[in-house]
Amino acid sequence: MNNMEFSLLGLILLFPCFTAVLLLFTPYNMVKIIGLSASCFNFLLSLILWIRFDNSTAHFQFLESFSWLPSANIEFGIGIDGITIYFVILTTFLIPACLLVGWTSIQHSIREYYIAFLVLESLMLAVFVTLDLLLFYVFFESVLIPMFFIIGIWGSRERKIRAAFQFFLYTLLGSVLMLLAILLIYFQAGTTDYQILLTTNFSEKRQLLLWLAFFSSFAVKVPMIPVHIWLPEAHVEAPTAGSVILAGILLKLGTYGFLRFSIPMFPHATLFFTPLIYTMSVIAIIYASLTTLRQVDLKKIIAYSSVAHMNYVTLGIFSLNLQGIEGSILLMLSHGLVSSALFLCVGCLYERTHTRLLKYYGGCVQTMPIFSILFLFFTLGNISLPGTSSFVGEFLILSGVFQTNPFVGCLAASGMIFGTAYSMWLYNRLAFCNSKYHLFTAYSDLNRREILLFLPFVFGVLWMGLFPEVFLEGMHVSVSHLIQHGNF
Amino acid sequence: MKELFLNDFKLAIPELFLISISIFLLVYGVVYSTSNLKGYPILSNNISRLALITLCFSIILVMNHPIKEAVFFSLILDDFSSFLKVLILICSFTSILISLDYLKEEKLNSFEPIILILISTVSMLLMVSSYDFISMYLGIELQSLCFYVLAACKRDSEFSTEAGIKYFLLGAFSSGLLLFGCSLIYGFTGLIHFEELAKVFSGIEHTNAIKLGILFLAVGFLFKLTAVPFHMWAPDVYEGAPNSITAFFLITPKIAILGLFVRLFLYSFYDFLFSWQVILLISSIASMILACFAAMAQKKIKRLLVYSAIGHVGYMLLAFSCGNLEGIQALFIYLVIYFIMTINMFASILSLRHVKYIADLHQLVRTNPLLSITMGVNLFSIAGIPPLAGFCSKFYLFFAAISSSLYLGALIGVLTSVVSCFYYIRLIKIIYFESPKTWIHYSTIDKEKSLILAITSFFILFFFCYPSPLFIFTHKIALTFII
């Protein structure tokens, strides 16, 4: 690699961090502009990364490495392959949206808000691009600190501390077992470099133990039943932007961990535990969907539907064939767009009326027609209507799962029906019916900032739904390589 | 004739310098503070700053010692002891530095505590270079005597006096146990020199009598280290002593006693590794579990910090009980980072007026936002959350534990660190999110403390980016036991 060529990936990783430090010194009226333009610039850089990405190889590209602890043989290696590139783009796409959402709704500590999100962006990007197991763990856990502050400081008042605590402690408890597993791997292999660990042979019993430790950490993040309790609480109490980033990226960290680490490194254990994952995922899909029907809080409905969708993703990942895994990655991306957009819609409503309880809403289409159209579009995306990106993802997942286990596929397909049930019922109660105008005194439709905020999401969902091959062609080689690696 | 003793004074230059200056400062203080002519001046601030300069010179003397390695009389001079001496001197330096303003505010006008801190520092320097039982016991006793008085130095507070008495009783008791262990080993081997003990144990059979002696020695040391189940004196004593003295208590003796402990057990009693490893492992697991649950019930800040220090001692004992190179390296990394986090914590506590209860910290973010973020970062680091410095120390510790097959210890360590996370985050919650219940004081932080806070916070935040120097350095220090 030519020494003169600057590292695009390193720049994408560090640029938000530098901006966060810069924001400590900017005058008060320039904070928002500088923060937003920096995050948009980072998004453009990631698009350039996508353009320069080579689809034809499964090797890691844009490789860099910084030696972190040379005496212990741990190096901070970063690199992109076909699976990672899309998460990088999703992250850099969602952060400007988060910053834009808080443009008028965040009234206090604006500078700290922008700094927190930019630091969070750097940390999340580091999770996705790192090729070192220990540093993956470090960044995986370090996203907890900014999220804790975001939920605690800018959340809505009622139970936010309890939610922040639950979020923190649940994820930490699962992850420390993963730390022990990583140290055991390091002791056996002498290195934590991912590419070397892919070639390490772990004994079967040890694989089971290590897989379970990794599972305990990822299962909390996904979230799987029964460790999903932190998610509705955290989503409800977080500010809108916090919910967007939580649903959009932080849930994907768990499934990304499954895909990147559990499956290639422990193939025997993966096959051993696949029935467990199928059971838990199917239970989660059906149970979460049924729970959604009973909710009265808007954000909780979307939070529980997130649980159901993420368990679809794990179902697809553990089907261990090309369609299933590609479908799961596409569903992850689509869920990142659709769920985030749904949270943005709820955020718009909350900003106007400061309540999230469903019984106060009704007949929105009479007073907020543009909002209703957008909300309908994303609700249809949630249902996985053909033409939206979720449909492609779910269809591929179901076709993958049917190949391995038709019974599980049938049960999972019933999840689509439940999904339609709660989404349509929510939309019905919110947009149609009689307007409860005696409860509210003022209405306003979406302003220009909010419409411009939604348009990229609409574009993304339609693009992925109508021309998915653009996204899938980057994944083919990497995913096939992953499946072949484990001899599944 | 005089060539025989030419080098003797050169060997102990730092200790000799420090003790003579402390005697000189004592005389200076006594003469001038009782002088009618000068109007009975209060010399505590003056002597504190002179003590700071003295400690700086001592650090320079230790680092530029003319002789690098020597064994003389009952003392030894090598890399290990030099590193620990520098660390102890830096700890004393920072403890006195952060207490300058506190002494003025609390009107602790006597200068004798400073002299006692200097003398106890000398004793700790002698402890880490001790190489047989007599110098070890003398060093421990000198340090303990100074500490008994230091705990009681706030003369108008019953709390402080009670702390002094408790410390004295239990310290004397534990010194007695230590001495009994030494006497048992002397009785069954006839040796007191560490090097001779190391050589003799590889030949003789491992009788239970010697294991009994090792047990008493270990118990004596664990008493001094405030490890469970010998920790009962620690919360009361450390809480009763004035805040700045507690800062000194929490860090420096642990370094000195751990240094002594490591040298004695890892060098002399290495053949009995499997006996004392079990003792230390039990103590460490008990410390970790007790500390994380006991600290949850505390309502006072200092008691919470003391229990968290007991937990940290548990982790350090886990690192020590590995008994190999990585274990000692992990121990020293943990010690250095523990020192930095504790100094940061105490500098923050000392900057606030009238904080005794945890609830006094409420809404600190409104009056001192920068101090709140410093405390927040520090608390996350003490809890062991990546990517802060506390996590780096813990990960290497668990790595050493797993590589020595101490699976139970590692598992319990990891689980208790999650449980202890709860009350650290509760502190952060109180600082940031609690609604104010009473009037909120505001007091400015003086320059010395703010400098210490800045340096330590910078270290905690950015240690993760470049941890190599500390790791390589401690590796070199730990190698003195292998070679």
TrEMBL record, chain A:
Gene Ontology biological process terms, A to Z: ATP synthesis coupled electron transport; electron transport coupled proton transport
Protein name per UniProt: NADH-ubiquinone oxidoreductase chain 4
Molecular function per GO: NADH dehydrogenase (ubiquinone) activity; NADH dehydrogenase activity; ubiquinone binding
GO CC, one annotated term: mitochondrial membrane
Lineage: Eukaryota, Viridiplantae, Chlorophyta, Pyramimonadophyceae, Pyramimonadales
Enzyme Commission no: 7.1.1.2
Gene field: nad4
Residue ranges annotated for the NADH:quinone oxidoreductase/Mrp antiporter transmembrane domain, each copy included: 132-414
The species this protein was found in: Pyramimonas parkeae
PANTHER family noted in UniProt: NADH-UBIQUINONE OXIDOREDUCTASE CHAIN 4 (PTHR43507:SF1)
UniProtKB/TrEMBL annotation, chain B:
Highest taxon above the source species: Eukaryota
GO MF annotations in UniProt: NADH dehydrogenase (ubiquinone) activity
Alphabetical list of InterPro entries matching this protein: NADH-Q_OxRdtase_suN/2, ND/Mrp_TM
Annotated TM spans: 12-34, 46-63, 83-103, 110-128, 165-189, 209-233, 245-270, 276-297, 304-321, 327-350, 370-389, 395-425, 451-473
Residue ranges occupied by any NADH:quinone oxidoreductase/Mrp antiporter transmembrane domain in the UniProt entry: 130-419
Pfam families: Proton_antipo_M
Bilayer topology term: Multi-pass membrane protein
GO CC entries: membrane
GO biological process, one term: ATP synthesis coupled electron transport
Metal-binding is among the record's keywords: no
Statement: the UniProt record of this protein carries the keyword Cell membrane: no
Compartments in which it is found: Membrane
Keywords, alphabetical: Membrane, Mitochondrion, NAD, Translocase, Transmembrane, Transmembrane helix
PANTHER family in UniProt: NADH DEHYDROGENASE
Name of this chain's protein: NADH dehydrogenase subunit 2
Lineage: Eukaryota, Viridiplantae, Chlorophyta, Pyramimonadophyceae, Pyramimonadales
Gene designation: nad2
